[in-house]
Amino acid sequence: MVDKTREIALKVLYKIDIEEAYSNIILDDMLNKNRNILEDRDIGLISEIVYGVTTWKLTLDEIITKYSNIKLKKISPWILNILRMGIYQIIFLDKIPKSAAVNESVNLAKRYGHRSSSNFVNAILRKVDKIDYEKLFEIENDVERISKVTSMPVWIINELFNEGLENKTVEEICKNSNKKPKLSIRANTLKTNVEELKNNLQERNIDVKDGLLKDFLIIDKIKNIENLDLFKKGMFTIQDEAAGLIPLILNPKKGETILDACSAPGGKTTYMAEIMRNQGEIEAWDIHKHRINLVEQTAKRLGISIIKTNVNDATKMKQNCIEKYDKILLDVPCLGIGVLKRKPDIKWKRNKQDIEQINKIQKQILENCAKYLKKGGEIVYSTCSILKEENEDVINEFLNKNSKFELEKIQLKEENYFKKYIKNETFLEVYQNEETDGFFIAKIRKSK
């Protein structure tokens, strides 16, 4: 009999691989469709397997290659993902006995493969042991070792080394990309405050502690957080603290006119509105209507009325916006290398050639939106990437071409956790670590 939990995980992995679905979207969709037959522990195991296999795919395939006499490309996608699931459980999940991992994988292979598939899966998984992973640390070539030990594509490792980073730093970045992200929430200060929210969560027996930023909390061991009454009432928003820092650095004021040119899904947009005490005007753009809908839904839930949404492509010049805004937030499209622990499938969908294409978009957005800024106004440019070509290089090239703009010093309070990451007083650059995602922030001012 096939275990329903693992079967659902297998179907999600198949869609990620073959249909190139995004892991978070297809997983949520599949869980919602099966919510009536799943318990909380089932949901936990499905999520663990899906994100675990997606994160560790390169390493898992290396171990399959070691024991399979059939090349990976020749193995059915169903059977390949069954093998990955089995090996992930054997090597990385201590609470699941090897016998259970093998038996459940064999049962899946009987349903999703040919007659010989179950024997093939059984033969490989019975040979696999934790030592197979440990032996990867013995690889002498640094790039190959880091790649196989941390399941990171070689091209990303080479990019990091090319930027002059030391071996230890590259290894730490890759290792931290595999760690489970913390769940941070932002108190909606239009409706509550962080202490009141903390007390309300504790009354519901939810583990909660203070975050790195003043309006944030870290919560643990909670399922279906969006079903919580406090969430539905708009008392808080789910947001990584790195993302929350970006509106704080822009520092919008009451009554100002702000542009968020790449706003969806709306976390930073709504935080600006809260900082402004819902007084002023924020214009929120995105290229897709369904993503603009997410901004509108979030604003409505939080009780925010100053956000005006528009479907706009920020790479296209808009003459009617010239010198219209006091401040502009540009959280531009990027490769997303800083958020791999949240979206591990990114590293399998991107390649080095994508840098040039994404660079053109980033530069065009910055060039256009700089024209929309009033004299004396400020732009914050940010990405959730850690590659210099998407960050410093874009800013420096823009400044070289535009003499009316200059870098602003990034000001943070002395006790702020992120203060130590400010580089040359002007760039805030964080590699993914135990606490947050990786990201980049710069602030530019237009002369009066």
Quick structural overview:
Helix content is 46%, strand content 15%. It has 19 helices and 13 strands.
Characterization of the model:
It is built from 19 helices and 13 strands. It is globular, with a radius of gyration of 23 Å. It has helices at residues 4-18, 23-33, 40-55, 57-67, 77-92, 98-112, 117-127, 130-134, 142-150, 154-162, 167-176, 194-203, 229-232, 241-250, 267-275, 289-302, 346-349, 354-370, 392-401; strands spanning 183-187, 207-210, 216-220, 236-238, 257-260, 281-286, 307-311, 325-331, 373-383, 405-407, 422-423, 427-430, 439-446. A hairpin with a 3-residue loop joins β11 and β12. The chain starts with a helix and ends with a strand. The relative contact order is 0.09. α5 (77-92) runs antiparallel to α6 (98-112). The strands form two sheets. Strands 5, 6, 7, 8, 9, 10, 11, 12 and 13 form a nine-stranded mixed beta sheet that branches. Strands 2-3-1-4 form a four-stranded antiparallel beta sheet, covered by helices on one side. It has three domains: 4-134, N-utilizing Substance Protein B Homolog, Chain A (Orthogonal Bundle), CATH 1.10.940.10; 139-176, no CATH class; 241-446, Rossmann fold (3-Layer(aba) Sandwich), CATH 3.40.50. By secondary structure, the chain is of the alpha/beta class.
